[in-house]
Fold this sequence. Notes:
mainly alpha; 5-stranded antiparallel beta sheet; 20 helices
Amino acid sequence: MTLPQLYLVVLIGCxxxxxxxxxxxxxxxxxxxxxxxxxxxxxxxxxxxxxIPFEDFELAQVLGTFALALILIEGGLxxxxxxxxxxxxxxxxxxxxxxGVSVTVTALGAHYLLGFAWQTALVMGAVVASTDAAAVxxxxxxxxxxxxxxxxxxxxxxxxxxxxxxxxxxxSAAEGLPSTFELFGLLVWELAAGSxxxxxxxxxxxxxxxxxxxxxxxxxxxxxxSLGMAAFAAAGSLHxxxxxxxxxxxxxxxxxxxxxxxxxxxxxxGLGWVAQLGMFVMLGLLASPENLLHMLVPAxxxxxxxxxxxxxxxxxxxxxxxxxxxREKALLSWAGLRGAVPIIFATIPRSEHLxxxxxxxxxxxxxxxxxxxxxxxxxPWVAKRLGLAQSGVVQEVDIETAPLDAVDGEVLTITVPxxxxxxxxxxxELRLPDGSAIAGVVRVDRLFVPAKADRLRSGxxxxxxxxxxxxxxxxxxxxxxxxxxxxARWLGETGRD
Length: 497
């Protein structure tokens, strides 16, 4: 590549990023997933648009796997242990038994409805079996779901990529389908070894970073991400699951008391977005609109089987040992969001030259786009209709100021929606735990520091400064007030799920 060519590539890349970022804001207001913006940008840049040729599925598989590892690391770093610790058992069942059930039901649909050969049908089922971590993380954190549900979904999306990709690789082998014994042994080894490696790297890395005084604070985020990628690469080198290793290492690191944790999380968020953008644009470059149109009807049929049969059946069977209500299972079924992960997984049989793999990839691409457009925007509505959307949602804001970093402080914003019990409460009646303080109120785009006798109004945003130790108690108090008003304690409302 010459220097002028480099300039052109960088210019096109930067313009694509800036246009995509601007478009994300518009689609966010409409409730549309960012996935569609990035995929669309890639298709515009492709051979049928600007004319950039890209048909290397093997390179796409490698780059997509790398990007997915980065996204899982970002997800692990931003996932709070207390949010998922009580839901590890149901999430693990969904990520293992649930994936197996989903693969089976989807493969039956692909074979009997679309006439796919059994090997191709099983590959198809495995490709679309896992939920997408990036899609789930971004969608759930904007909805006020009970922690039991949000924790289950976040943990499941972090865990289920690993068994799904193992099944895709096993079913795509040129020598044919493995025996049940071989498949079971492969799953146990890869998941167990990957988990051990991820936990060991995370714990060892956290111990080291707490004792290592680096000269520049910006080196800490790089060190944390390097540890996550080291877990990914080490597990992969030992033929274990790199995905589960990367996620668990990041989960341990993100929940350790590391220096400059706020800066690390901001860096992780930015790098996660870079990985998503690059991955989606690359997948858009691979797509051919002419080929996609031919697979529209099969994609709709198989997507209906996956969404309305395979996912619900897998959820209900996996959660039999646990006490989830019918409404909760219905929401978990609808929240099985797909994103770029199935499209990345679909490059595996394509690079292995499995018969029918090009049609399989086109079908998966259409399925993901159509059903992401369908499920993502409707998830808040479904949660509300099922009575599972909470009011007075507490959201975290990323803070980079040195004083907060020095005391390991956290800033929360609490929106007061219409009808919330927080509306009308005076500031002194909040009675937050000692150590949590009211920093300000945003009302109609105006920030002010409230007096103790000031009342909160619908639409206000309350800004609270707290610490990790007090955060849970603060959230519970605010949730209780949102549900029952100033008499929450007298009414027995604690804010717990």
